[in-house]
Write a structure and sequence with these properties.
mainly alpha; two-stranded parallel sheet; 6 helices; about 10% strand
């Protein structure tokens, strides 16, 4: 993940992450150009509205957990919700890219929002996804539109 982030960084891509331990921090280590969204009071109200539309048990969540899911919206749509991410790279135990399960964990919210906004999701738990993203990193040979 750090290697992929270094490659994407070298092609002027900007990492958007949530600062969680594991995949997020591995990506962050390889990226110089990054936007890290934390569950703080600076999340726009509209991010909570969007998060509520895409979380199956939104009404039963505690306020802090709602903040975590609302910041996932910012990871996909940007700080002010006006800049859609071009693609998502993630790792979940179930390899979710479209359909999420309880095993997808918190990343499921980002995947659901990405799907709603037609953002491609590349889950590194799936065979061939590392190579696909690595090809995107090779910006001298490929155009991103080849992957849409």
């Amino acid at each position: 993940m750090t290697e992929l982030a270094e490659g994407l960084d070298g092609c002027s891509w900007i990492l958007r992450s949530g600062g969680a331990k594991g995949a997020d921090t591995a990506f962050e280590e390889g990226a110089k150009n990054k936007e890290i969204f934390l569950p703080t009071g600076t999340i726009p109200d509209e991010a909570f509205d969007i998060a509520a539309l895409h979380h199956p048990t939104w009404g039963g969540l505690k306020p802090y957990v709602k903040m975590l899911h609302a910041r996932n919206v910012q990871q996909i749509l940007g700080k002010n919700l006006d800049c859609t991410t071009k693609f998502v790279v993630c790792w979940t135990p179930d390899g979710a890219e479209t359909v999420t399960t309880k095993d997808t964990g918190g990343t499921g919210q980002a995947i659901r929002v990405a799907n709603a906004y037609r953002v491609p999701v590349y889950n590194l738990a799936n065979e061939g996804r590392f190579e696909t993203v690595k090809d995107i990193c090779d910006c001298s040979l490929m155009q991103y539109s080849d992957y849409l």
